[in-house]
Design brief:
Blueprint: E1 5-8, E2 28-34, E3 37-42, E4 45-52, H1 54-64, H2 66-76, E5 84-87, E6 90-93, H3 94-108, H4 111-124, H5 128-135, H6 137-140, E7 144-148, E8 159-165, E9 176-183, E10 189-194, E11 202-205, E12 209-215, H7 227-237, H8 241-249, E13 257-263, E14 268-274, E15 279-282, E16 298-303, H9 304-317, H10 323-327, E17 339-346, E18 351-356, E19 370-373, H11 374-379
Helix pairs in contact: 1-4, 4-5, 7-8
Length: about 375
């Protein structure tokens, strides 16, 4: 997305459409196991549990979702595996992927992610080039996000909303999976993801830190750690808002990206603009030239008319937002036609609501929202 990005600090809107979120106990079904990991469904939604070393988690991922990964990779990446691959008309030469793997990845990307991808390739019975190529896709595409601090909500809890507008025609929604990951020696987290991807664009950890991104310009500026891996580093390394900010300050960055990062323990959040050369933070309620309509105790990131609508709705509903009405902030016109997934996170409670685009191409905001309890999913095996 190359529009100018507007970031605002935000409150929640009145509920225009009633959303019924089922409070009944979800139906959990164990599908398969591999080592310490397993695959289950929660009310029919795939939930993948990964645990252990990078090699163990990668192999669990590859084996338990082999069919979905192979189908996903086969659709996303076209071409000759020897000569190179193509994504949406963008050429990924074998030499470029090899360079990313052997040079940039090994020099800049944490080694544990390279090891995890290699193990995933082994488990899914794919080549490393195919798996690396797939995990580079977020770097080739360039959504909306907001954080409402406690004073902006009715129940006095921080809400973090994330609207992902990526392109429904990629059929990623057919391979949606919620990944509950417990890396050895790291913070457990939940990643709203797709089969075969080890990075993250939307997630929350057990330390009550949550994050979502939106793309800007700068495609091809890849001399750094790919965005989705930086987000993954926040999820498994950051126990506070400052530690999350430090991940971006202390590591080389690629392209132009915008983020909303929240910390429910501190009841705080920031908007962030990050390019390879510099990064900029916008604190709750702060005025910015890209944020001409600031609202106290909120952070909002979007662009154009979507930003204008979101800012208006947030100002109108300040202090009254419930989880149900906060979800409706992610409807059109804030969401685009290419609305791939919507997520509302309540980090203090470890709760998240997830909706994915329909197989018929209908945007995520028109679909069912699934409710997940992170602590319970980690603690209790079906």
């Amino acid at each position: 997305m190359k529009n100018r990005i507007s970031v605002v600090f935000l409150a929640f809107v009145p509920i225009f459409l009633f959303l019924s979120i089922c409070s009944a106990e979800p139906v959990r079904k164990l599908i398969a196991q591999e080592g310490k990991g397993y695959l289950e469904t929660v009310d029919g939604y795939r939930v993948l549990h990964l645990k252990g070393t990078p090699e163990e988690m990668g192999y669990q991922h590859g084996v338990l979702l082999r069919e979905a990964i192979r189908e996903n990779v086969g659709f996303l990446l076209q071409g000759d595996k020897e000569e190179g691959l193509e994504f949406q008309g963008i050429k990924l030469s074998r030499a470029m992927i090899a360079n990313m793997l052997t040079l940039r990845f090994q020099q800049q990307v944490p080694e544990r992610f390279v090891r995890e991808m290699k193990a995933l390739a082994n488990g899914a019975q794919l080549t490393e080039v195919q798996v690396i190529g797939t995990n580079l896709i977020p770097e080739l595409m360039h959504c909306s996000g907001f954080a409402l601090l406690s004073e902006a909500t009715a129940e006095k809890k921080l809400y973090h909303g994330r609207v992902l507008d990526y392109g429904i025609d990629m059929r990623l929604q057919e391979h949606a999976v919620l990944i509950i990951q417990e890396p050895e020696g790291k913070i457990p987290f939940v990643n709203v993801s797709y089969a075969g991807f080890i990075g993250s664009v939307t997630g929350m950890n057990t330390a009550q830190v949550s994050i979502g991104e939106m793309g800007g310009g700068g495609v091809g500026q890849w001399d750094g750690i790919p965005m989705s891996f930086l987000v993954r580093m926040v999820l498994e390394d950051a126990g506070s808002l400052q530690e999350a900010i430090d991940v971006f300050q202390d590591n080389p960055r690629t392209c132009e990206y915008y983020y909303v990062i929240a910390d429910a323990k501190a009841d705080s959040a920031v908007g962030m603009k990050a390019v390879p050369e510099a990064m900029e933070l916008i604190r709750p309620g702060a005025w910015h030239e890209l944020l001409p309509m600031p609202v106290k105790n909120t952070v909002l990131m979007s662009a154009g008319d979507r930003y204008q609508n979101l800012a208006r709705l947030v100002a109108q509903g300040y202090g009254t937002f419930t989880q149900e009405s906060a979800i409706r902030l992610m409807d059109a016109p804030v969401a685009m036609k290419s609305n791939l997934h919507d997520v509302l996170m309540v980090p203090q409670d470890g709760i998240l609501y997830v909706a994915n685009a329909g197989k018929d191409g209908a945007p995520a905001w028109k679909q069912k929202y699934y409710r997940f309890d992170l602590a319970k999913l980690i603690r209790e095996k079906p």
